[in-house]
Amino acid sequence: MAGIVLVFDFDKTIIDCDSDNWVVDDLGFTDLFNQLLPTMPWNSLMDRMMKELHAQEKTIDDIAEVLKRAPIHPRIVPAIKSAHSLGCELRIVSDANMFFVETMLEHLGLREYFSEINTNPGFVDEEGRLRIIPYHDFTKSSHGCNICPPNLCKGMIIERIQASLEGRKKIIYLGDGTGDYCPSLRLGKADYMMPRKNFPVWDLICGNPLLIKAEIHEWSDGEGLERVLLQIINMISVEENKDNSAQLISVDCKLQTISASNQALPQALPVPQ
Question: What residues does Mg(2+) bind to (predicted)?
Fold first, then answer.
């Protein structure tokens, strides 16, 4: 199914929690996080929290082990592998960070299934501290979107993906949060939006569904995600096969017209069954 690009959010879509909160809470820094939250953007706060973790001698391995315990619905991994086996291209657009996302994907055996990860850079510096920096450096300029947080506009990433696609490829976007609303507005009529029901992006879409050009198919948990996603992929496959059959019929009609005006072609021999 080379004509489909799946774009996944990460937190509360692939894993069943917010990875930032999961790490902060598990390592015992919830109170400090809540104290600092009103004073700075979320992305900057997570970089500050990594500084505090390092100061308290929490290592990169400690963080990785916490991430590996993050909850995930048992049908998510099979759903991703099934979609990939059907020929879909898989990408991630997330407001988490590269270290968190790659650590989880590698733990789940899924890293190789994704051709692209778009998220905030996360790397280990020379002191062994995890640094988290914004995808878009809002200290230098604004990305210009008043819907998205200052560090990342997912809608702009979707537009870049759309511009890079060749042919008649369709996008299926899966997400749950407020940040997934902007990209849903950028999808076209041939695309599909899969919001997680009763989560923020679902509420925003329900506020005015007519703003969304794409077909909307909700899901509630990993089992629903798998079922709905594979149904959409199958539906697109059926439509593509119909289009291909129609093209073959058209070509066949042209060949019949040509052969009628020239010497008849020899009849094809039946192939033994």
Answer: 9, 11, 176
> What does the block give as tokens for 154?
């997912």
Query: Is residue 18 annotated as involved in ligand binding?
Result: no
Q: Is 270 helix (H, G, I), strand (E, B) or coil?
A: coil
Please write down the long-range contacts of 266-272, taking CB distance under 8 Å and 24 or more positions apart: none
Distance, CA of 201 to CA of 194 (rounded, Å): 10
Burial class (CB in 10 A: 0-12, 13-18, 19+), 135: buried
Beta carbons of 1 and 237 less than 8 angstroms apart: yes
Q: Is 26 a catalytic residue?
A: no
Concerning whether 11 is annotated as a catalytic residue, the answer is yes
Domain boundaries, the chain: 4-234
Over residues 180-206, the pLDDT tens digits come to 999 999 999 999 999 999 999 999 999
State which amino acid sits at residue 60.
Answer: I
CA dihedral 157, 188, 210, 146 (to 10 degrees): 20
Tell me the fold of 4-234.
Answer: Rossmann fold (3.40.50)
Strands (E), 98-241: 114-120, 122-124, 130-132, 170-175, 192-195, 215-216
pTM of the entire structure?
A: 0.87
191 in a labelled binding site: no
